[in-house]
Specification:
By secondary structure, this protein is an alpha+beta fold. It has one domain: Double Stranded RNA Binding Domain, CATH 3.30.160.100. It is built from two helices and four strands; from the N terminus they run βαβββα. The chain has a four-stranded mixed β-sheet, covered by helices on one side. A hairpin with a 4-residue loop joins β3 and β4. The radius of gyration is 14 Å and the shape is elongated. The N and C termini lie far apart (about 30 Å). The model has no long low-confidence stretch (mean pLDDT about 90).
């Protein structure tokens, strides 16, 4: 099983996929270190909403789920920028992990 899984990215262009891969792989290592588990997996579900007036601008709703054999963490966020939504989501999930393990 792949440690990083994506859902809802079927209609993403190459630029969006590149941003997604870059931000996710960078943050996955941080999460795995915080969790102290080699069996940590991350599921990222992204839903896009298009602005009706312009049709070009997209809003991204990101839900991140981090699991290991004994823990489950989940958070969600949204933004008009994919990178900002991902960074915000990973910041929130890392805050939850730190709070659970008292790593602050």
């Amino acid at each position: 099983m792949d440690p990083i899984q994506f859902s809802g990215i079927g209609d993403f262009n190459d630029e969006e996929k590149q941003v997604l891969k870059h931000v996710t792989t960078k943050n996955y290592e941080k999460i795995r270190t915080l969790m102290k588990s080699e069996q940590t997996s991350v599921l990222i579900h992204i839903k896009t909403y298009k602005e009706k007036a312009k049709g070009e601008k997209k809003k991204y709703s990101v839900t991140i789920k981090v699991t290991d054999p004994t823990n489950l963490f989940r958070c969600g966020t949204s933004d008009w920028s994919l990178a900002e939504a991902l960074h915000d989501g990973f910041d929130k999930i890392m805050h939850e992990i730190k709070s659970k393990f008292r790593l602050d």
